Amino acid sequence: MTTAQSHAGTENPAPTATVPLGPDSLTWKYFGDLRTGLLGVWIGSIQNMYPELGAGVEDHSILLREPLQRVARSVYPIMGVVYDGDRAAQTGEQIKSFHHDIKGVDANGRRYHALNPETFYWAHATFFMLIVKTAEYFCGGLTEAEKHQLFDEHVQWYRMYGMSMRPVPATWEDFCAYWDHKCREELEINRATLDIFSIRIPKPWFVLMPTPVWDQLFKPMVGAQRWVAAGLFDPALREKAGMRWTPGDEVVLRLLGKMVELAFVAVPDEIRLHPRALAAYRRASGKVPDDAPLVEAPAFMAPPRDRRGLPMHYQPPHTSLLDRAGSLVHATFSLTGLSRLPSLRSPRKPTGSRRKVA
């Protein structure tokens, strides 16, 4: 793997630039899109296949205990490193702080630490490839120029963490070689990976639905995501996982992708975009002040009571009953389209003074 010459041999180089991504980037266009959720099993399993990362998940994660809440609350700060503007680097530092105590020795006697630069970058690389594969399969595809642009943006995005840039490939072509090497030579099917393949989604306490009904709803959804993951894995990974994929499967996946692409033409931005991304577009278009509070995960996504206060968990801030009622009303109006916001896909740059929103 070739890395940028300016990073070679330097363990913790000072970032040459910490300019956050903005609404003109392709990363903003794709990362906050709801369609990335179709790759949930894909990204969960391929992250865990990295030995150090998988060991950390096995020893420290409570993903299997509360998978929906764990993923939902984690996505907010992860999205923030892309969408928080001048506060993106601060969000990156917050995410790093969750990983300080995730360390140990795996079953094979190998030491691991979540802040090992190679391990931390691998997680970031999977989010970058999440964008690439979502765009290729479910959003109409990417040109080679767009792939190069997304690669450059993923480097700019990674700088927001303040991590060593040593593991980062220098070019898109180098990244493709890096990815291929990882898939062929380093990734493994470990316990954490198998747990994702067979994951059961426990019914959250706040869902008013009989558990058997919930299980029957989610079982086929997880199976479908596992099938999508098989299609998006590199052939070397499918072979390691013992997954079968035929030309017919590929045709069906491509047809499904086209159907999803067409269906989302009519999906409003208030539904299509993650709340952190939607808020960023509103700030960029001047609808809310630049210093408006960042959108955080709802309080009901908090970690279990016996885990609260541990530094490895993102804790949604406590909100008053009045604030929660206001958020519910706002979300209801947004989902029904009554807010009548114009499309946020191509926000205009604000002109003149901005009116503060009460």
TrEMBL record:
InterPro entries membership: MPAB/Lcp_cat_dom
Residue span(s) of domain ER-bound oxygenase mpaB/mpaB'/Rubber oxygenase catalytic: 28-260
Molecular function GO labels: oxidoreductase activity
Biased composition (Polar residues): 1-15
Start and end residues of each stretch annotated as Disordered: 1-20
PANTHER family: BLR2777 PROTEIN (PTHR36151), ER-BOUND OXYGENASE MPAB_MPAB'_RUBBER OXYGENASE CATALYTIC DOMAIN-CONTAINING PROTEIN (PTHR36151:SF3)
Protein name: Uncharacterized protein (DUF2236 family)
The species this protein was found in: Mycolicibacterium fluoranthenivorans
